[in-house]
Amino acid sequence: MSVTLETRDLTIRFGGHVAVDAVSCLFTPGQTTAIVGPNGAGKTTYFNLISGQLRASAGKVLLDGVDITGESAPLRARRGLGRAFQLTNLFPNLTVAENVRLAVQAARGVHYDMMQPWGGRRDLMTRADEILESVALESRRAHPAAALSHGDQRKLEVALMIALDPRVFMFDEPTAGMSVDEAPVVLDLIARLKQDKSKIILLVEHKMDVVRSLADRIIVLTNGACVADGEPAAVIASPVVQQAYLGIAPEASP
User: Fold this and answer.
1) Adjacency order of strands within the sheet including 200-204
2) Torsion sign over Cα 66, 70, 76, 79
3) What is the structure's pLDDT at 245?
4) Which residues of the chain have pLDDT under 50?
């Protein structure tokens, strides 16, 4: 079933500072939206408001028309909001395979049963192995998550989100800290997720080459406010974006 996600005048204030300023956006299935802007523009804060890590000072978050503004992050996750963070969010002492298996188990609503250990659930193990292969981590399946490189931890976090099968994928700088060799694996994963037109994909990203390759739509935040929203080529070429994001001063009028 398709899903819609909407923010209406979404706002958060920290003291006298307005970090996100009345941002209204509608996100629909089959669309990958990149949220860009200079450092401190409010991009990750906006993500945190949508996924429930922060509570809004004003405005609303709606999923399928239902107001979820007052719900916790775990409740929103159960509704289908999937979030990958700039900082990894793993079970460090469990193996790579165990991390993914737990996510597969959670997605299918399977509770631990002492009478039927993991070895008896080949369907769950097979699905976990398929996901590990998709993120190029099958050779590290027995390694503790804490022993992985930063880039591999990022890939594992994406694997956990895929295992949970959310209706909305939220990637916060998915290639941050990755080497040139590691980043294409995650970008290819996102490109494959785009093929499922029932999903919404949101992406916070600084790298414009990544934005150009993946985004169907770009939203630009500056000082917490939405200053541009539209098709990538038009948004990137707009004077407000050239000035706010790229630091290019608009040409003086003759």
Assistant:
1) 81-84, 168-172, 200-204, 31-36, 217-222, 225-230
2) negative
3) 59
4) 86, 114-115, 252-254
